[in-house]
Amino acid sequence: MIELILDPxxxxxxxxxxxxxFASGAMLxxxxxxxxxxxxxxxxxxxxxxxxxxxxxxxFLGFSISELGVPAAILIAIFLGLIIKNTNxxxxxxxxIIFSSFFALGFVLxxxxxxTINLEDLLFGQILAVSTSDVYIVISLLLIVLLVVIxxxxxxxxxxxxxxxxxxxxxxxTFLNYLFLILLSIAIVGSLQTVxxxxxxxxxxxxxxxxxxxxxxxxxxxxxxxxxxxISSITGLYLSYFxxxxxxxxxxxxxxxxxxxxFIFNKVSKKGSxxxxxxx
Amino acid sequence: MNTxxxxxxxxxxxxxxxxxxxxxxxxxxxxxxxxxxxGKKVAVVGPNGGGKSTLxxxxxxxxxxxxxxLTIEGSTPEEAKGKVSYVPQKDLINWNFPLSVKQVVEMGIxxxxxxxxxxxxxxxxxxxxxxxxxxxxxxxxNNIKSLSGGQLQRVLIARALAQDSEILxxxxxxxxxxxxxxxxxxxxxxxINLDGKTILIATHDVNNLEEKFDEVxxxxxxxxxxxxxxxxxxxEVIKEMYGSHxxxxxxxxxxxxxGNNSND
Lengths: 280, 264
Prior knowledge:
The complex is a heterodimer of chains A (280) and B (264). Chain A is an all-alpha fold and 280 residues long. Chain A has helices at residues 2-6, 12-37, 41-60, 69-86, 91-112, 119-124, 132-151, 153-161, 163-168, 173-190, 192-214, 218-243, 247-279. In chain A, α2 packs antiparallel against α12 (218-243), α4 packs across α5 and α11 packs across α12 (218-243). Chain B has a single domain, classed as Rossmann fold. Chain B contains 10 helices and 9 strands.
């Protein structure tokens, strides 16, 4: 067993990939519980798809996807926030328009600029191709997300639970709104090489959803979500190494497996507690 | 003399002078005038869309006035933010979050200064005191999802008490709770009021207002009447608020008719 675990570590590219998988899994699943409880799944998907034009132009100019992370995230978050705030067509509709139009623009730019990007890698991730500098960038992004969430945890929680109450209390809710959008965008853009544009959503919401099923409190759900996220990404990477499977979809499927187990656990434990109540 | 009597020395706390709020071209509040003294317990009544929540939002500094002025101890609502606690309508809160009662009450002490939460003992004492005041101290570690509608309302009131502000705004405090829970909430509001807090409650329940409140503010975009419920709730005022539906209220005979203030 230990040999199996250690075997991939003889390759430098696997060590880089494992560290990146750990950082991406943790970064997304820190924010996942906030995102699912605020019903922001569609928004997160839109952020992932809206990155495509920036990636196209960035790669054309010679940057890697990881290097584009922070500036792209800030641009997308501010743009999305402004569009949603200043249109009265409904949040879902505004997100839908941005989602599809930016995705389309990205493909047109890739074609026009003749950017050499493997589309399959972009959509589903190609973690095995990460460079050493990419690893450092993703770890830095994880630390930024972790630090900001710890520092602003109570304010973000108040704003997410009761935005009106938070504003009356004098919290800067506009700042908190954009802060969370920027963090979400950083985590998504920073994880694109790991799981790709399409599957990044699965690593954001599935570990958080599974954690919500097996925990009672929000803080515990964040801790369990991080645990599930990291287990999914690392196990997925090992599966892809040994079974020669694509890495992004493997991670996503492991997360789905954890969700199914959590769902069963949730149902069984509820039945158990019901039986206890009936007996007592 | 209790705290309420000490505070209620006819000192105006909230003054609305020609207050107007428009959303685009549609008026939500038109030239509303009233003056609420410190320590009063005021019911804000009126039809849906009559401006009750708009007035609360304006008092809480959430929306700007289009015209007129609204002051709290001489300051604008924006300047007086710390003096007002707001318990919003329950459906405006995201109940998806699996939070403990303690976490919700602690929000009343959360400020934009990140360092303000460092003194854990002080924070915990404030939370315990607020929960004792609403009779939920034994539920401090419970998940809010395990509470009844009435208990949730009391948790939100505890959060407002932890904020320790002078004015408490409760929007639809009695909606979606049973009669027993309404009675409990009213008793709680009475005891908070005796401690000297000024309380405004938006409500659709216009039964026996004179027994429950010091004053009533009747809104239907404009101010239809303001004052002692037993004096201002005339059939004319009810008709001004509810139009053709006022018959429903007259039949209940809860309001003062000319020369008759009976509840029979």
